[in-house]
Amino acid sequence: MGLAFAPEQYQAQLDAKRQRLIELLAPFGAPAPEVFDSPREHFRLRAEFRLWYEQGVPHYAMFEQGDKRNPVLIDQLPIASQRINALMGPLLAACKADPQLGRKLFQVEFLTTLSGQALVTLCYHRPIDEQWDAAASQLAAQLDIRLIGRSRGRKRVLGDDHITETLQVDGRDWHYQQVEGGFTQPNGEVNRKMLGWALDVVGDNPQQDLLELYCGNGNFTLPLSTRFRRVLATELAKRSVQSAQANLAMNAVDNVTLVRLASEEVTQALTGVREFRRLQGIDLSGFEFGTVFVDPPRAGLDPATLELVRGYPRILYISCNPETLAANLAELHSTHRISRCALFDQFPYTHHMESGVLLERR
C-alpha cells in the first residue's frame, strides 16, 4: 500500500467500494450505506520505510506487494501526512551526515497526529548506546520530534515513547495516547468521522449500559461513554489496555470499567461458565446492557461471541473486513435487522474498506 496514488480516480474507486458493500449487505435487507470519504492526499498518519543503499547512499524505499527485490525509491509520499513529508528529507540528511545516526540504519518508522506531533523510530543492524543518544537528542530537538532507537534486544527512548492525538467529535476534544508500536487508526480524518457516526447511531441511553469488546486503546470507548450510564470495555493486548487506561484518565472519564479479557473469556464470564480473578470486585449482574459494540480483527466474531452478542437488543459492529462481516451477519440475520450502515474510506487507492452496521433486534 502507498505506491498507488491517483486522485483523479478516487471517486470512481469510492463508488466501486460502495457498490461492493451494497452487494454484500443486500441479502440482509440493509438500507443504502452512508459514505464517509477520505482526504485525497496526506491522509495517512503513519508510514514505514526501508532504506535502500546505492553506492553507500541511503534512500527511502517502498516495494510493491509481494516484491522485496525491486525497490521504488522515493523522497516524498503523497498519501502520508504533511508532517511525515516535511520530516523525510531533513531526517535522512542528518543520518547521512552523522555515522552515529546513519551507520547500519535499515528502517525508519513515522507516527504523526492531526495536531502535528511526530514520533520517529530508527531501526539498526548494530547495537546502539549512549553515543547514539547524544546525536539523536540533537536531532530530536532540531526537528521537534520524539525519537526512539531500536536494535536487536535494545530500545532507547529519548523522552516519551508516545505522542498525543486530539480528535474533535461532536463538539468535544478527545485526547489519545498513541504508543510506538501500538495500533492506531491510520486515517485520522476518517477516524473522526467514524466516531461521529457511532455516536449518532447509538443516540442517548442514560438508563442503559454498553458492553464493548476489542476496545483497543479506547478509540471508541471515550466518546461512546458519554451516551451510556456505564461502559464495560474489554481488551486482551496489554499495551492497548495500558493506553486505554491512560486515555480514560487523561480525558477524566469515570464511568468505564476496563477489563483485560479475550472475547471468549468475556462470553464465559457473562454466561457464568467461568470466574476470572481479573473480574474480582466487579459486579457483572449490576450492568444493564442494551447495546454491545464490537470492532473485531479481520477474522470477525468467533461462534461463541456471535451467540453472546445475539442476546442484546442492539449490536454496533465496526468491521475492517466486509467478507467476514457478511458471514457474521448471515448468522445474526434471524434475530436482528440492519437499521443503519456506513462505509468509511480509511484506505484510499486500495481495495480495503472499513464499514459499520447497527443491528436491532427484530
UniProtKB/TrEMBL annotation:
GO biological process: tRNA methylation
SUPFAM superfamilies, sorted: S-adenosyl-L-methionine-dependent methyltransferases
EC number(s) recorded for this UniProt protein: 2.1.1.35
Residues annotated as the enzyme's active site: 320, 320 (nucleophile), 354 (proton acceptor)
Reaction equations catalysed: uridine(54) in tRNA + S-adenosyl-L-methionine = 5-methyluridine(54) in tRNA + S-adenosyl-L-homocysteine + H(+); uridine(341) in tmRNA + S-adenosyl-L-methionine = 5-methyluridine(341) in tmRNA + S-adenosyl-L-homocysteine + H(+)
Entry GO MF terms: rRNA binding; tRNA (uracil(54)-C5)-methyltransferase activity, S-adenosyl methionine-dependent; tRNA binding
Residues bound to S-adenosyl-L-methionine: 185, 214, 219, 235, 295
Example of a GO cellular component annotation carried by this entry: cytosol
Keywords of this entry: Methyltransferase, S-adenosyl-L-methionine, Transferase, tRNA processing
Domain of life: Bacteria
Family: Belongs to the class I-like SAM-binding methyltransferase superfamily. RNA M5U methyltransferase family. TrmA subfamily.
Function: Dual-specificity methyltransferase that catalyzes the formation of 5-methyluridine at position 54 (m5U54) in all tRNAs, and that of position 341 (m5U341) in tmRNA (transfer-mRNA).
UniProt cross-references to NCBIfam families, sorted A to Z: trmA_only
Protein name per the record: tRNA/tmRNA (uracil-C(5))-methyltransferase
